[in-house]
């Protein structure tokens, strides 16, 4: 089946690229309230295309914010059902003057399509639709049942998505989920992303005197809140980057040697070169790759108190604040970890000060699917077939909230089929996407959906 | 001799207060370039008055900034020479709307003279001149030789004072120095301030990655500079407020039991009430009074790095900075202490980051005169005589740079005869000075200068 589909895609490539250009030309900037008509144009583009392809049901759904496109094809009797998620909204394009070609006038240069959204996420969404078109045109059917949701608020925090998913849980139930909103570790290297980290956080403010005090008159009598904060933070991690908070690691997964091998074999960044640090600083007993992919972190995202201007101001500041976030791995419960942080702070605050804690309301569990899961193995085989190279299996230190939501709500594996590259300039001027990845990526998808339809 | 002088001061009190009002009415705000004429008026007021009193030599000296008033009386043959320092400039008075009476229209209410400069320092300078007048009018002579410098740049950092003192070292040489630019521990309690702290400082910036990094993608690979800074600061002081920096305490004075007794007997602040802290936090083995007066301090004056806005930004900041200052006690060399801090930072910086240190160029040694020095005992007796209460002996955690300069340059004791009170609102709206302290303070001065003239 895949061969004829690939043939179709090859023969129709220039027409499909033109169609993609038309999609990319729509200025669907979700954060810009003056672009509501453009958002509607994108919705119309998608619903028209999905109708043309031959989906059974194609609908524009209200969410309370920007509309969401829903479509379904349920005629693959006996085959599993895929829930495809994507987003049609894009980041703003300013500063426009830094673009070599206009962000909404797609242009191919040096083998890349330059346009806002080429990689994130309109380009990757379009690839799925083009493959569905090719399958319908060549075989008259899709190898799996497909439910599609394409939202318009991803770049502004997906405010209405969770509510929509919960309200339409039965309608959206599927056997697995597919998302193409990520990338490969490097151009040309197939990458199976099988895990993401969870997230929790809080802000702690150490309060001392009710006003900034003269450091001469009060130094020695009054505990300095900035020093107290430093001392408090220093109790949370030792010099070997081990997090020293009771309960933080409760129920944490054990990293297997097999997984460590996968991670360390994956191509990685040369951190000193890419970030300018003198050396990496992973947790004792783990490599930087292992720590970023599979060990929890605790980071000070911001720190402030007292005088920040030029020169000297001899005060004891009245307070000092640190913003902290943790990235979590499978097994860790975000609320339990946040409670452990709060408890640690409350029990380790130095004498002479008081602490005030603001809990970060957003949180997420880590997501992980077994890299040996048949669907991931099928995905890996599909990549290898198209790219001519074995796929690497990686986890990512970041979080993609929708993945965790789908995982929790539908209890199904999420297959992350990313085709982006580190050079795509997501959210920046001159966003682009390699034409070759458009081509090979569609081959991967054709192969994958076909394989997924087979028992 | 003192009795007739006191009699004169009493009989002339209302005229002297009118004269003080005229001095306080001059808007001698040194930082305000539109007030140059007012600065000249203050100079003229002082030179006219000093000439009227009968000083031998009364001069307006150029400094490169605001002029300085110099005067001398050298006819007390065989008697020691006093170098009196004061300043005629004042702080700005804004916000004017917070003053109950206009800042440059002196008004007596509830036993206090309300005006900018009433306490700091025109009021206290005038008291010395009035006593000199009384002595000349009643006895035709002063009991000591007197050299007077009254500068116009104290409130803007005394930029030209050190140069002036050095250039005129021979002219200004004296046997002791007298300054009335400080206060008493509480209204009505004679206070001998016999020590001030020195000062050094630096700013340390911990550098990590060359830009803020995504905390998910890089957390675990790259050392967090804000956490590194916290860990570094935490190595400088233990939980018992002991400074743990090699070399910091070198050559430090040992606090005698006699001094401890003096300090602990002095009236002091109820810190939790006055500052709102839950409890005091002095160094282990010392009381809050002992630590503020006589133990060195290390304070974080400011702390900053990364995100400071609302909510969460999941970054690893590229750098974090702390501003540190130390107050020093006798024996400590500011440069040696700064070197010790630098060495500590360089040897304790965590792996994975680099540190950049900016040394604070200003520094000062501590100042201390033996509380048993005959001049201080004479000062104490003079206070006790006038106020009817025994003087308390205290040291102060703050620094008065001119005291340390005079000490270093002339190698003479500096007698700090302060008459201000904690309620004077220095540098704030509604500055005031108690009329009773004007009256009693002049008695103290009459008594002190007389005693100082006697061998």
From TrEMBL, chains A, B:
UniProt keyword Metal-binding present: yes
Domain Peptidase M20 dimerisation: 194-352
Record Pfam families: M20_dimer (PF07687), Peptidase_M20 (PF01546)
Keywords (A to Z) from UniProt: Hydrolase, Metal-binding, Protease
InterPro entries with a match to the protein in the record: Cyt/Met_Dipeptidase, Peptidase_M20, Peptidase_M20_dimer
Domain of life: Bacteria
Metal-binding in keyword set: yes
Biological process annotations from GO: proteolysis
Entry coiled-coil feature ranges: none
A GO molecular function held by the record: metal ion binding
PANTHER family the UniProt entry points to: BETA-ALA-HIS DIPEPTIDASE, SUCCINYL-DIAMINOPIMELATE DESUCCINYLASE
UniProt-listed NCBIfam families: PRK07907.1 (NF005914), PRK08201.1 (NF006053), PRK09104.1 (NF006579)
Protein name in UniProt: Dipeptidase
Organism: Alkalicoccus urumqiensis (Bacillus urumqiensis)
